[in-house]
């Protein structure tokens, strides 16, 4: 059982079954503020289901989820931003009819200060809020080194730029916990390295829960790892502990973790 006194996320003995299939079986993990925790395992291991439970898309059959000392009960995805939780998707999920900066601004919808009437009638309060959000979005794009694309449309841009836009959209609400679902998919080796540095930089502001298949990235940035297979936790601990665990084999990861660059592991974030 995970310590519920943590100031971060606590997933405690979560079980989810779809018909006769058990997607998650007594899964527990925690993410402390300022910590990067990676969830790894083969396709079908239950990683996305775990994210969907935390985000309120899926109701667990048993177990509890606690964030910052408060139990999350019957929460909906639209409740996450106000709770301080953000999530990216495996794809990019951007609106093709909106520019990059507009897509990022849309991520703040749940936390905007202007009321509905102000937005509807274009009153000064709504205009001031829009200016604030636009500047915040531009600042994030600058931080992610894609400010030059602010007024472009997503479909005209390389996939890596779209991925960064999606990340900026999740960050605009200033979360205290971010769930990153395969953020490195489709990125080049150089882009992976840059992404890793950016994720490590997030530790000063929030906790990070990461699902990722790129083992070099996982081993270079995560403080702790949780390994799932067939919905169960088969290993958990530091990178070195997971690497040394005999159950963590090629069959689970698609790559033997003993072959991962030792320099990346020893250097850490």
Report on the structure:
The longest helix is centred in the middle third of the chain and has 20 residues, at 124-143. α3 (100-106) packs parallel to α6 (159-171). The chain folds into two domains: 1-34 and 45-84 and 177-192 and 204-215 and 226-239, P-loop containing nucleotide triphosphate hydrolases (Rossmann fold, 3-Layer(aba) Sandwich); 93-174, P-loop containing nucleotide triphosphate hydrolases (Rossmann fold, 3-Layer(aba) Sandwich), CATH 3.40.50. The chain has helices at 47-55, 80-83, 100-106, 116-121, 124-143, 159-171, 189-202, 215-221, 239-244, 250-253, 262-267; strands at 9-18, 21-31, 36-40, 62-67, 70-71, 85-87, 177-181, 207-211, 224-229, 232-237. It has 269 residues and is of the alpha/beta class. A six-stranded mixed sheet has the order 6-7-8-3-9-10, sandwiched between helices. A four-stranded antiparallel sheet has the order 2-1-4-5, with helices on one face.
Task: Give a topology summary.
Blueprint lengths: L8 E10 L2 E11 L4 E5 L6 H9 L6 E6 L2 E2 L8 H4 L1 E3 L12 H7 L9 H6 L2 H20 L15 H13 L5 E5 L7 H14 L4 E5 L3 H7 L2 E6 L2 E6 L1 H6 L5 H4 L8 H6 L2
Parallel strand pairs: 3-8, 3-9, 6-7, 7-8
Antiparallel strand pairs: 1-2, 1-4, 4-5, 9-10
Helix pairs in contact: 3-5, 3-6
């Amino acid at each position: 059982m995970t310590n519920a006194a943590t100031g971060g996320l606590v997933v405690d003995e979560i079980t989810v079954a779809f018909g006769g299939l058990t997607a998650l079986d007594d899964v527990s993990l925690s993410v402390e503020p300022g910590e990067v925790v990676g969830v790894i395992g083969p396709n079908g291991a239950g990683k996305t289901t775990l994210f969907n439970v935390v985000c309120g898309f899926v109701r667990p059959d048993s177990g509890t989820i606690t964030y910052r000392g408060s139990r999350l009960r019957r929460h909906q995805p639209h409740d996450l931003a106000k709770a301080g939780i953000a999530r990216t998707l495996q794809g990019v999920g951007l609106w093709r009819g909106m520019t990059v900066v507009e897509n990022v601004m849309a991520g703040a919808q749940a936390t905007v200060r202007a009321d509905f009437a102000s937005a509807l009638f274009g009153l000064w309060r709504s205009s001031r809020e829009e200016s604030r959000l636009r500047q915040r979005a531009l600042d994030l794009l600058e931080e992610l080194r894609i400010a030059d694309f602010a007024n472009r449309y997503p479909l005209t841009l390389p996939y890596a730029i779209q991925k960064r836009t999606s990340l900026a959209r999740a960050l605009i609400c200033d979360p205290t916990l971010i769930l990153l679902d395969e953020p490195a998919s489709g990125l080049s080796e150089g882009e992976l390295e840059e992404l890793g540095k950016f994720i490590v930089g997030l530790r000063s502001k929030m906790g990070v829960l990461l699902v990722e298949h790129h083992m070099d990235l996982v081993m270079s940035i995560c403080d702790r790892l949780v390994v799932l297979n067939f919905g169960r936790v088969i290993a958990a601990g530091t990178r070195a502990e997971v690497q040394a665990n005999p159950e963590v084999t090629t069959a689970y990861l698609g790559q033997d973790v003993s072959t991962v660059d030792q320099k990346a592991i020893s250097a850490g974030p």
